[in-house]
Target: Integral membrane protein
Amino acid sequence: MKNVLSTVSDRREEKKSGQTMEERLNAIRAGILGSNDGILTVVGVVFSVAAATTNRLVIVIAALSDLLACALSMGSGEFAAVSSQSDSERVAVDRERVALKENFDEQLATVQAYYEGRGVTAETAKAIAVELLAQKPLETILSVKYDMTLGHYVSPIEASFASTFSAALGGALPLLALLLSPMKYQYIAAILATVVAVSLTGLISAFLSKGMVKRAVIRNIWIGLLTIVIHFSIGKLF
Model:
């Protein structure tokens, strides 16, 4: 009877709403990665093609094609990768649900060892483990073993949408700069747009991860400029 009640309780926990930090960061990470990739691939195509031809229409068509391909590629890649992670999380939940029924003492020892490893005495750690497993067995074991929250799985759809949208938006910036500026200054405008775009990406990623803002921005700018130099050189070579 106790196992039945525990299972029912766990099922209810799985239906709770509200995103965890990991779920929110999943979409943010995909968005930042997509944006950076969109910016660099488009500007790379712009300068590699521009080194081979001065035909503006050819350059724009090549850049637009790359923009669409990059956005769809990033979105599908994120969907596949995050789907695999989500599947693994669900498999872990099912495995631990069975383990709680068949090897409860082993799971109890795992939770006890977890708290002992954090400086709690063996007696207190066992008392904590017994109480937690009596109230929320599956939620407890998932938190201890996998640092997971029951009922919260990373979303492949959110990651895919964030990556696709941000890749398209990021890649559109240097392309628009190229289109809207006079032909005499189109490449300078594309370079400036790239610097601004990658700076914003670095700023946002550093802010969200509470990292070093200045270092992140400078790093992204150097990567952007290096991308331009490499692709322009390849275009000149071929």
Remarks:
- DSSP finds nine helices and no strands in the chain.
- The radius of gyration is 25 Å.
- The chain has one domain: 21-236.
